[in-house]
Amino acid sequence: MTRKKEVFRPIRGDRVTLYACGPTAYESPNLAHCRRFIVADLLVRYLELKGFTVESYMNFTDIDDNTIAGAEAAGLPLQEFTEKYIDEFMQAMDTLGVRRATGYPRASVHVQDMIEIAHELIHKGYAYEKHGSIYFDISKFKRYGRLSGVDLGKIRVGRTVDLDDYEKDNPRDFTLLKRSTLAELKKGIFFETDWGNVRPGWHIECSAMSTRYLGETLDIHTASQNLMFPHHENEIAIAESLTGKPLANYWLHSGLLLKDGRKMAAEAGNVVTLQEVLDRGYTDREIRFMLLGVHYRKPLRFSYKRLDAVRKALKRIDEFTRKLLCQPPGLPHPEVAVFISGLERRFCQAMDDDLNISAALGALFDFIKKTNPVLQADSLDREQKNEILEVLKRINSVLGVLRLEHCPLAPEIDRLIRQRERARQMKDWTAADSVREELLRKGVTIHDTVSGPVWEQSDDGD
RNA sequence: GGCGACGUAGCCAAGUGGUAAGGCAGUGGUCUGCAAAACCAUUAUUCAGCGGUUCAAAUCCGCUCGUCGCCUCCA
Known about the structure:
By secondary structure, the chain is an alpha/beta fold. It has helices at residues 31-49, 65-74, 78-95, 111-123, 182-186, 202-214, 228-243, 274-279, 284-292, 304-326, 336-352, 357-376, 382-399, 411-425, 429-441, and strands at residues 15-20, 53-58, 127-130, 133-136, 174-179, 191-193, 196-200, 218-224, 248-254, 257-259, 262-263, 300-302, 444-449, 452-457. The structure holds one RNA strand.
């Protein structure tokens, strides 16, 4: 709320409540959605690593202008239409390794809460009814604009909205409940109230659901930067007029996802869906790592070139963990303990500082750089390997991209690798090469190293 | 017009008062039957530009330039 970094102190000891503005269920998940999911996920995972119990909710907006228009265009009932997209979003989160939130409330089933809120706001004098719609009277909420820093006196009203569509007393007011149109009435998209048949506006949806599930004040509210104004200001206005208490103690806004220098959005015509990227052959973990790798507050410029670079960086990490797991243990190394403790300390130090993921990853790469020669020289005993794995596992509980499962060496593959090694010892290169060919057909690439062959399974279905 | 974010090597990206992390690409090397991979070393006298404050500035202040976002229902 201060627009600065602050030390995080949850309201209740080691319990943290978190609310994330979720997507509107009228389009397939694109990379901009994915980034928001990943940022929220990173926060949750790190809080959990630090020992907090996180109670998190993310909503789905399944009743608003877009969903109604989308359902109309698709010729589907609203619920059937939104259901399809909600499924896609849930799938996308699974693909990206996003941990499940405590709950995913839908706006459409909380309309009664919203109607009650509207009643109370009118009662308290913060809202008014006009021609069957309910509007929030911004002039009554003095602290308006604190989060985003907008000065209501200076903004250009009507710059992006056709004011003729509304009948507000003041163009700065916003809609809480909207009178259902004739078309909406015909489709049953309406809720009976004292003021007539209405449907909810966008801002009241989030206020209603966040406070309903997490109480009057939550610890952290997160979403994308461009929701700050007006959405979050409106959310705050609603909730705080109601309770007189802050809606959220901390606000965390993720930066935009840019494509070709522009915000990825339907209007810009530069939307890249998650599915498109997967179809191009990039894996879920490559996408996750790309979206993870930039500090959450910074804009992230998406390009396939960037994905390629990420793929290579990830390979370097994979190479390290593969050697760690697959090579037989050797002799102990005196300095490795220092490397290990340094890694964990630096990683957490970086993440403690406003989730500085770049610095955290820098610590990981530094560790790999230092430990690689040791590994190369076969100087790690079993205990040290396990120590490294323990730390990497903790780190990976946050990153979710490391490969730390033990070498799943199929007996068939193992037999072929041994066969090739025997042939190589006898300098029977033709036999050795033909086995290598056979392994390649099975999707296994062999890398000969000083201390024996290390193999790599191709990424099919990864 | 207002508000805000940003500008660090060929590219990506940390660092926000004490002398430029890390990744990708490049270059050189090591290893190797071949191949591939890997590993190592190396790569910014300089942080958009100009001025100021300071013993000390990429970091603070001012101005300029450039990019992007928001300005009441697109998330």
